[in-house]
Amino acid sequence: MNAIRLGVQWPGVEPKQGVYDETYLEKAKQIVDDAAKHNIYTLLDFHQDLLSEKFCGEGIPLWAVKTKGAMQFPRPI
Length: 77
Fold this sequence. Notes:
The protein has helices spanning 10-13, 22-37, and strands at 3-7, 41-45. It is α+β, with helices and mostly antiparallel strands. It has a domain at 3-49.
């Protein structure tokens, strides 16, 4: 093995608009640096599924989700 895929989530990086979590970023950098010491490449994956936890997913922080007029989850049956 010579590569890893490291998930870095926007809500982890910027939990509040304009506020960056330096600890989160430092830990991600430490993982990349540790992997590099063992000749392992790192692919940073800014992954998202279903946009946001507002829609039972993950990806962008709640503060960035505009829901006016959007379907709410779980949708009434």
